[in-house]
């Protein structure tokens, strides 16, 4: 079996850990930041934040030309520290939250998929993470 490539992205959000955690995990916030570009939006988010719980974000092009569900099942949840999940295509993702003197460091590591280049995947996930940072800090 071939080992999947992993990609790691990160940012530091200037906000208290409790706010960062809430904005990351609450559906009413997820729909406001979960997009990689201006011409996309997340129209719906469901989140059952517990081990074995499911999440779903419906991502759609604003012009209605394309959309997809981003969904998976949580394998580990430690409040204000770590979230791990498995996507429906069996890729694993881990997100860690650590408080630093500059804010909350968010580090996301995910197994790459085969459709898009590693660089494109890195850029897309990083763009979403950057949107999250902007949303929380404003």
From TrEMBL:
Identification of the protein by name: Uncharacterized conserved protein YndB, AHSA1/START domain
Residues of the Activator of Hsp90 ATPase homologue 1/2-like C-terminal domain: 14-137
A Pfam cross-reference name: AHSA1
Domain of life of the source: Bacteria
InterPro entries, per database record: ASHA1/2-like_C, START-like_dom_sf
Similarity section: Belongs to the AHA1 family.
């Amino acid at each position: 079996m071939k080992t999947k490539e992993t990609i790691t992205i990160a940012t530091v959000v200037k906000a208290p850990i409790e706010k960062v955690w809430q904005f990351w995990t609450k559906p009413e916030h997820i729909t406001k930041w979960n997009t990689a570009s201006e011409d996309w939006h997340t129209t719906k988010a469901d989140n059952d934040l517990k081990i074995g719980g499911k999440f779903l974000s419906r991502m759609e092009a604003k012009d209605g030309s394309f959309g997809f569900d981003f969904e998976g099942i949580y394998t580990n949840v430690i409040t204000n520290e770590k979230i791990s999940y498995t996507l429906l295509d069996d890729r694993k993702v881990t997100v860690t939250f650590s408080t630093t003197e500059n804010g909350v460091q968010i580090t996301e590591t995910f197994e790459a998929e085969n459709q898009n280049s590693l660089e494109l995947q890195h850029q897309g996930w990083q763009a979403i993470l950057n949107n999250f940072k902007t949303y929380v800090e404003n």
